[in-house]
Amino acid sequence: MPKQSSSGTSTGNGAFEVTKVSNLNCIDLSSSDIQRSVSLLKQACLDCGFFYVINHGISEEFMEEVFDQSKRFFTLPLSEKMKLLRNEKHRGYTPLLDELLDPNNQVHVGDYKEGYYIGVEVPVDDPEAEKPFYGPNVWPTTDILPGWRDTMEKYHQKALEAARSVARIIALALDLEIDFFDKPEMLGQPIATLRLLHYGGDISNPSVGIFGAGAHSDYGLITLLATDNVLGLQICKDKDAKPQVWEYVPPIKGAFIVNLGDMLERWSNCIFKSTLHRVLGNGQERYSIAYFVEPSHDCLVECLPTCKSEENPPKFPPIKCAAYLSQRYKDTHADLKLYKAERT
Average of pLDDT values for 118-144? Predict the structure, then answer.
């Protein structure tokens, strides 16, 4: 783990933005000491909502294969990638600047990254495909990227199993039954989305609003992030601090960086944190693989019984998962009509 250090960057508005390297708790999913795992995870969730997970069941060899396949896609000509442009179900390619995560501070039109969404595969003739975020995926043809679909589908399944293991420890940390999140309306039939990401080597400059990915918190339950060895991810544990302190999260080979999403913050009545994070580019290409885990469409996200009292009543009204996610995606992604207009 790198030693903690500090530096600073002018924000352009007279404030001075401080950065350092963060030290996060590490959860070993193979450990037989479940109480220690629960304790480490709970401390991390109370502190910043970010932690590492190791021994998660996905081999380093297979992770390298997934990264290699991701690079094969992103090195295709833009014309080929645009044939796989994301649809209204958020499946497929997202071009450079497609996503705008921090409109108050990003003076340019979006994030300097491109991505590719892969969700739970649901045949088009299945009634479930009518729901938001469900339906068939968009896949490159086998003549262009042979073996690509098989690798991504296998990774999707393995990452979901790892996410379920993490969710069981989270349940215990919230004083719930260990299988609380295994229910059909939760992670039994989840909205689980794999997103490949590529940062093309642009240099970020917070003082003028240029970011690889703007500051944001994730939308759902948890996110499992695998990265290459290029530093870029930063977290801000206290978004209201003046100035904000941003901490780099160093990649650890073979580990997931796990963070909590806004749904879990709502569920826990803000006891557990969904923390601001962003990506700064330093001139190097960077690849990462995010796996976003949300409950089923019809799951009602409301304050957990272990997280409320007369002194601490629920802070948010109940909301269905699909409605919440749909609005968040709409707020942060470009209108698909813009791409159609460019082609006419």
Answer: 91
Q: Which range is least confidently modeled, 17-21, 38-42, 55-59, 233-237?
A: 17-21
- Reported as a single tens digit per residue, the pLDDT across 78-102 is 999 999 999 988 899 999 999 889 9
* Cβ-Cβ contacts under 8 Å for 265 (sequence gap 6 or more): 49, 217, 272, 273, 274
Please, what CATH class does the domain formed by 6-343 belong to? mainly beta
How far is Cα 75 from Cα 57, in angstroms, rounded to an integer? 29
What's CA 45's distance to the chain center, in Å? 16
- Classify the C-alpha dihedral 22-28-29-35 as positive or negative: negative
What whole-number distance in Å separates Cα of residue 175 and Cα of residue 95? 42
Check residue 184 and give left, alpha or beta (phi > 0: left; psi -120 to 50: alpha).
alpha
d(C-alpha 69, C-alpha 152), whole Å: 8
- HSE (CB half, 13 Å, CA atoms) of 86? 25
What pLDDT shows up at residue 85? 96
Q: Tokens 């039109």 — which residue?
A: 109
Rg (CA), the chain: 20
Q: Residue 326's Cα: distance from chain center in Å? A: 16
Maximum C-alpha span of the chain? 62
Higher pLDDT, 325 or 192: 192
CA–CA distance, 302 with 318 (Å, rounded to integer): 4
The predicted model scores a pTM of 0.91
Helices in the chain by DSSP H: which ranges? 34-47, 60-74, 78-82, 148-173, 262-267, 321-332, 336-343
